[in-house]
Amino acid sequence: MAQTKFGMSQPVRRREDVPLLRGEGRYVADVVADGALHAVVVRSPHAHAGFSIDAAAAREIAGVRLVLIGDDVADLGPLPCLAGPLGAEAQAPPYLVLAREEVRHVGDAVAFVVADTVEAAKDGAEAIEIDWTALPHAIDAVAALAVAAPQVWPDKPGNLAFDVSIGDAAATEAAFAAAAKVVTLTVVNQRLVTNYLDTRGVVAEYDAAAERFTLTLSSQGPHLIRDVLAKNIFKIAPDKFRVLTPDVGGGFGTKFFPYREYALAAVAAKRLGSPVRWIGERSEHFLGDSHGRDNVTTGRLALDDKGRFLALDFDLVADMGAYLSCYAPYIPCAGALLLPGVYDVPLCAVRIRGVYTNTVPVDAYRGAGRPEAAYVLERLVDTAARETGIAPDVLRKKNFIKPQAMPYTTATGKTYDSGEFAAHMGQAMDAADWKGFARRYAVAKKRGRLRGIALATYVEACGAMAPEPAVLHLDDDGGVTVLIGTQSSGQGHLTAYAQLIAEHLDLPPERIRLVQGDTDRIATGSGSGGSSSIPCGGASVAGAARKLADNLKKLAADRLEAAAGDIEIGDGGLCIAGTDRAVSYADLARSPKTDKALLTTTDTFTPPEATYPNGTHVVEVEIDPATGDVAVVNYVVVDDFGVSLNPLLLEGQVVGGIAQGLGQALMERTAYDADSGQLLSASLQDYALPRAADMPALAFATRNVRCRTNPLGVKGAGEAGTIGACPAIMNAVVDALWRAYRIRHLDMPATPERVWAAIAEAKRMHTL
User: Fold this and answer.
1) Are 188 and 748 in contact (CB under 8 A)?
2) 266: buried, middle or exposed (CB in 10 Å: 19+, 13-18, 0-12)?
3) Are the C-beta atoms of residues 229 and 503 closer than 8 Å to each other?
4) How many domains does the chain have?
5) Residues 362, 293 contacting (CB under 8 angstroms)
6) What is the pLDDT of residues 440-459, one digit of tens each?
7) At 593, which CATH number?
8) How do strand 212-217 and strand 241-244 relate by DSSP bridges?
9) Which structural domain, as residue segments, surrounds residue 497?
10) pTM of this prediction?
C-alpha cells in the first residue's frame, strides 16, 4: 500500500485540541456524582513532631458527616514502594494512609474530613484538636548524613535509606591514579514541584450490593493505582475496584502513583453510602504530591595527555524525603546507568546514597534520573574542556562513541543500538552559527552585556515499560475503536494511534475512537511513563492494525470471491486490485455473514531493550551584569528519535520538555527553611514557573537513525527536551561568567540574584 495521507511521519494536526480549547474537556474536577460529599485533608504544620489527636468536636460541626484519623484506618496497608535501588526489594518504613502519633514532613496527612460542602469540611478540619510536640528535623540530604544529624526514622541510622554501587570501583580508581588530568565538579540538582495544569483529585463511589468501588481520578494510567489500592492497601481482589481517568492536564511522572487521598475517599464512600469527592488545592499539591530531583553529585573525570577519557567516578546523594515513594529509590539508580553518556569511556564507578529527610517524598519527574545524570556529566565535560584548553566540541568529538561501534555496551551495562553523535552535534552547531559567536560577543560587550555559548549532548534510555496490549475493533460504521492502557495527559495519543492505524487501514483520523482510562473496559495497562506510549503502546497498536488488515482482506476475499492476495486496502474499504469490485469496512462489519471474531485483533509488543534517543542542544545567552538577569537569545536542538511518527507532535513534546528544563535552570527551586523545616516555596507566589515571555524562539530539527530494537524504528521522545536543556543552558551561563569574571561554576537555578551575587563575589576576590 502506498504511503497514506495520515500515516507514519505525516504532520497530522492534533484531534484532541479543539474540544479542550473550547472548554469542553472533562477533568476530574468536572466530575460531580449525584449526592456527592466533599472532603478535605488535615495536614501537619510541622516538619517532625509527635502528636495526639481528638476529633470529637469536629464531628459535631454542622454538615460534617465523617472524620477519619489514623486509628480509623489502621486496617489499611501502607503505601508501598514498588522498586528499590537497582530494582532490588525496597526496605521501606511504613507510609501510612494517615499518620499516627508522629508526622515526618510539613504536609503529612493526619485526618480526612467529609462534609456536605467543602466549607463545612474545612470548618470540621479547624475544629480538630491536635497537641503537637515538635521534634528535631533533618532537611538537607547531605547534612542529614552527618553523625549528629536528627533522625527521621529511629531504625534507619544515619538517615540512610540505601547505599549501592555501580561499576568496578578498584579499576576506576587505578585509572584515576594513572591519569594525566583529573577534573572534579560538585553540582546540585535542586528539588522541583511538578505543577501540572489540573491538580489531583478523586471521586469515590461504593456499590454495597456488588461490594465494589469506583474511583474517578486524574492519573497517568489507572491500572497501577487499582492494583496497589486493592492488593496492598485494602487487601482485596483487584476486580473489586474500577478506576476511571477522564481528561488529564499533565502528569510528568507525578500522577503515575497511588496517593493517600484515593484510599481515604474510598473508605469514606463505603462508610457513608454516598460518593465522596476530594479535589486538591494548589497549595496541597506543593505539600502532598511527590517532588522531583533533589540530588547532590560529585563527578570526577580522568583524562590522558591527549584529552581521551579514561574513567568516570560519581558520588551521588539523593534526597528521598520522609518516606520511600512508589519508585523513588529506583530513580537515581536508573539515571546513574546513563552517566557514561555518549562517550567511549571504558570505566565508570558510581556510589548512590538515598537519604531520609523531613521533607515531602520525591519520585519520578519528567526524565526520572536521566536529566540529573546528563546535567552532572555535561557540566563536568565542559569544565574539563576549560581546564584542558580543548574546545568543548573538539573534546566531545574526540571521545564520542563512533557509529561503527554500535551496538555499544557502556561501562554501566547499557547497550546503545544506534546513534551518530558527532553528526547531530555538528548540525546543531551549524544551525546556531557557532562560528559567528565571536562577532556577537563583541557586539554584546559594547552594550555592556555578557555573552556565552555552549552545548550539551545527551543520550537517555526510555520506551521500555512493561508490555502494553492494544485491542482494535472494527465498528459497524466502518470506524475503528482502540482500547489500550496508556493514558493521554497532553501527548496526543488519539492522533498518534490514528496515524498508526491509517498506515495499515487507510482510515482518516476522525474514524478512529480511543478508549483509555477504564480498568473495566481495558484488562491490563502499564500507563504512560518513561516515554513508552509510542515505542510500546504504539508498536502494539500497529501490530493489531496489521492483523486487522489481514483479517479484513480474508473477509473481503470471501465476499468478493477472490484470492486474499489480490485484495487491496484503500479509502476506507477493500477492492480487488485493478478492478472496481469493492466492499466497504462498514458493509463487512454489518454483514451477518462476517465472522465477528475476525473484526477484533490484539497485539502486545514486549520491548527487548530500551530505546536510546540522543541529541545536541546549543544555547546562547546574554547576561546583564548590573542585575544578573539571564536571557536565552538563541536555542537550537537537533535530536535523533529514530523515526518521527508525527513531526508536529514530536516538536510539541520537545518544546514542552525544554520549557521545564529552562524553568529548572533559571528559576524553579523548592526551598525549605533549615531552622523551622517549613516549606518556603509553598505556592505560585513563591515558586517561579516559566511563562511564554521567558521562552526563546526554538530551532528544532531531527537527524534520525532508525532504532534497531523497536518495530516502528522509533525512540521515545517525551522527556528528551528536559534532559538536554539544563546542562546546555547552564553551560552557556557559566561560559558567559567565565569569559568575564573567571567564574567556574554556578548551581541551578541561575536566578538574577544568584548570578548578580556570583559576579559581586568575583569582583570582590579580584580586588583582594
Assistant:
1) yes
2) buried
3) no
4) 1
5) yes
6) 999 999 999 999 999 999 99
7) 3.30.365.10
8) parallel
9) 17-24+465-514+521-603
10) 0.97
